[in-house]
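Thread: "does anyone have the structure for this chain?"

Original post by V.I.:
We have the sequence but no experimental structure in hand. Need at least a predicted one for the grant figures.
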Amino acid sequence: MDFPGQERLKMGDNGQKSRVVRRVLFRQRLLAVFNAFGRVFPQNGSAFPTLGEPALLEKAGRLTGLDDFGDESFREPLGILLQALHTDARLNLVGRIAAHNDVLRLLCNRLRLVDDRKKHPAIPDQIISRPLFITGLPRSGSTLLHALLAQDPALRAPATWEVMYPSPPPERARIHSDPRLARTARDLKWLELLMPDFKRVHLIDARLPQECIAITEMAFMSYVFESMFFLSPYRQWHEDVDKVPAYEFHRGFLQHLQWRCPGSRWVLKAPCHLMALEALFQVYPDAGIIMTHRDPVKVLGSCTSFTEVLRSPFTDVVDRKTIGVDVRDRWEKGSHLAVRFRQDREVLSGRFFDIMYLDFIRDPIGLIRSLYEHFEMHLTNAAEEAMLRFLTANPQHKHGVHRYALEDYGLDPVAERRRFQFYMDYFRLGTE
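Reply from O.Q.:
Generated one for you, tokens below.
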């Protein structure tokens, strides 16, 4: 019996082919048996993880011994999310367990963050000054750029382990030895089991910087959820809702991380900031924005494939054409919003620095030097050498080539390039 992805793996490098194929086939068979169990037995019994809001809130309180979730603005998105997970996501047993565990972790984090602010009243006094936000179409080099900038000791980026387990606030003296590092590394092993192609597509490590969408998850206003699951009702609500509360939570979270572990300037990243530049500048009026740009046809092909990687473990029904439309519509809207903001707010043009993907891949350090000059920052020799070491240790395609075809997702490259021509024209972007 063949499983999805088996043919692609058989075509890989001969040196690792047999080990990779055996490992992935074992994982797929194991998950198939596990999910078959979930289909045989009803999932509404007490033995199965609940997605009911009262039960999750009660369990989070019991696990932490706390009862104050802070600002009540999270209640509406949480309710919409849980309802969509129940009615729309078509979760298999693995998906139900994953959704339950993730929502529970986020609720426990909220409780502990609120408690930390009560215990340490200096946290809300932290000033977040002139943060840098990396954004742009996904799959355009932003993750690598974020990781490189995080090599500069003068800059501060939220590490994956800090975002997953933020309480108690991290300390500078233990930033490289905190036991939460090992805990996060163990959690990421589960990610590798569930999604063996993930590392091929996206750079992640407990010590590497994490995206802002993993921060706003704790406000339950995040593009993480609709990337991981089919959630049409949540997506429709999230598209039009005021994003300011999410950015206010985001700022409070940075204050929490900064209190005992400061840096001279935050460097942050998420493609979805394109959809909310107005809200971002309302909460961070002195922010600088680094926008990465890539041929939209390449973006859509890579992003649709990545979305399939993310969703496949959690449902037995993966509709590629639905993924294609979801991804295309999201980033077409994001592109329009970003172009309109840039056109309407020319007074902020000096706050933006644009990077073309092909230029960045050809000369990453040269572009970073220009970026530092634009934002009147000083790039030390030590920081540049650290960035060069990171590039040497993490070459492109380190974990294999990410292969994809836009047509597999029901999208025509010629039609999609026409659809995004306004974006290419505005940023004078060539085809790839």
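V.I.: this helps a lot. The first strand starts at residue 132 and ends at 136.
O.Q.: and Residues 32 and 316 are 9 Å apart (CA to CA).
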